[in-house]
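Example 3.2
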Amino acid sequence: SSIEYGNTLTSTKFYDKEFDVIVANPPHGITWKDFAKDVYNDKTGQYHDYPSTSDGQLLFDQHIISRLNNNGFAVVVNNGSALFTGDAGGGESNIRKLFFDRDIVEAIIQLPSDEFFNTNIFTYIWILNKNKPKGKEKKVMLIDASNKFVLLKKNKGKKRKEIDEENRKEIL
């Protein structure tokens, strides 16, 4: 494995590699206003449209998809902005449309709130697959796992819940 330091959105360190599997939990709600010029001038072709500069979630998703090989899949933790922000015909909407038109989204799983440290927002696991199994083409599984949790005996910051083994198996 290899870890490279830098800004994922403006300086792709692995520009010459494609991956079978990517697992990612990009930062939620990160502004990209300060490096918008670099993103707009990107020459890798990884961005097909641009979300609001106040939230780069869909930039990370486009980057992740661009790094997958033709049989690759990714598991990405997104906040709700990837699903719900943007006007019809705007950047966010166009990016989502691209993902669905290319039939890359296999599943979206809503997780419980209070599942991650330092935030009590709902999060969603997106399963992105460039080679969906036969019979799953042009379909997207929507899984509500928001009530699949156990309470922690002691809170860890804002984290009050966790998905135990039994609930994990049911979700899978």
